[in-house]
Amino acid sequence: MYVDGASTTRRTAFRDAEKRYQLKLVEQFRVSANGKRRGGRFVAEPTDLSDVLDFSVDDERSSRRSLVSTSGTTETYAIDGHPGFYYVKNALSAEEQRTWVRAAVSELCEPPARTNFAKELGELPSGLWNAVQEDLMLFDGAWARPGREVKRGDAEERFFARHLLKKLRWATVGAPFEWTSRVYEPDVPRRAISDDLVELTRRIARAAPEKWTFDAQAGLVNYYQPGDTLNGHMDDAENNLDRPIVSISLGCPAVFLLGHENRDKSPTAMILRSGDAVILGGESRKCYHGVPRVFASDESLEFELPTCLRAEAWDDDAYASYISRARINISIRDID
Ligand SMILES: O=C(O)CCC(=O)C(=O)O
Ligand SMILES: [Fe+2]
């Protein structure tokens, strides 16, 4: 769906910013009772976020943003130096956040949606989420109970549904994207974009004062675990770059870098939080962007999940436990 510049190795202002925010693990040592130094525990090195916009707090960094409109609890902001980009805070209600987390892991990644597994394993059988709950594994193209005990470190471990769920990185809804030829494939089986998703993203797109035409036709669902990143890229496979992209964040917070038309200008860093959305329209539609960092919700108080995603808010603990260590992004595009 995007140009992932071969230039990720070239030193650019964008690349420097990615490095600044990426997760760095440092070994933690402790001295045991007999005076020996023991290591082996890795923790995240603190990251300096003093230059990162956070729409959930009002401080000196807020001078770089301006409130464009308010509708109920939804607030839409523009950011200095990034025409056409909007941050839509509280774009989703508490209930909608749960609905779309549930849909992302139990519907949007289900066949015939294309996922990152297609190349290595072929299409997974349907029911990945239920297979995780029942601790099943992939055997001869179906979910099955393991025939014998599988120990930690055994090669078969990677076929457990719980392991595959951790490796789920993307799913496409609507017209699937062929990453090699970099085109949307018109005539293959697909998971249609539901009316609910069309309606939701249309509503969000209307928050932009430009009132761009936006027809939700294809979507990419990205699944991130803490430590996962999305390299700086520009989405350019869609025919008409005058149409915006609407991109919804769910679960753990992330650092999002919004750059410019090349990688040499310093990007603006901001935190994307659950229930918020961004609109990449106008000039910003052709700008580099990426996600160098996803924070686990228990890393620090400022990254806690909103109450609507914590265990007590669900009737099924499994969703709460997944989303406390995952981020989901649903980006919807108009591809004509
Ligand atoms: O995860 C995000 O917030 C950004 C996703 C994105 O840029 C993409 O899917 O093209
Ligand atoms: Fe993108």
UniProtKB/TrEMBL annotation:
Q: Which cofactor does it need?
A: Fe(2+)
| Gene Ontology CC terms, in alphabetical order | cytoplasm
Listed GO biological process terms = oxidative RNA demethylation
GO MF annotation terms: broad specificity oxidative DNA demethylase activity; ferrous iron binding; oxidative RNA demethylase activity
Which keywords are on file for this protein?
Answer: Dioxygenase, Iron, Metal-binding, Oxidoreductase
**Which residues of this UniProt protein bind Fe cation?**
233, 235, 289
Q: How is the cofactor bound?
A: Binds 1 Fe(2+) ion per subunit.
Span of domain Fe2OG dioxygenase: 215-336
Q: Is Oxidoreductase a UniProt keyword of this protein?
A: yes
Similarity section: Belongs to the alkB family.
Q: Which PANTHER family match?
A: ALKYLATED DNA REPAIR PROTEIN ALKB-RELATED, ALPHA-KETOGLUTARATE-DEPENDENT DIOXYGENASE ALKB
Q: What is this protein called?
A: Alpha-ketoglutarate-dependent dioxygenase AlkB-like
Species of origin reads: Ostreococcus tauri (Marine green alga)
Recall the taxonomic lineage recorded for the source organism.
Answer: Eukaryota, Viridiplantae, Chlorophyta, Mamiellophyceae, Mamiellales
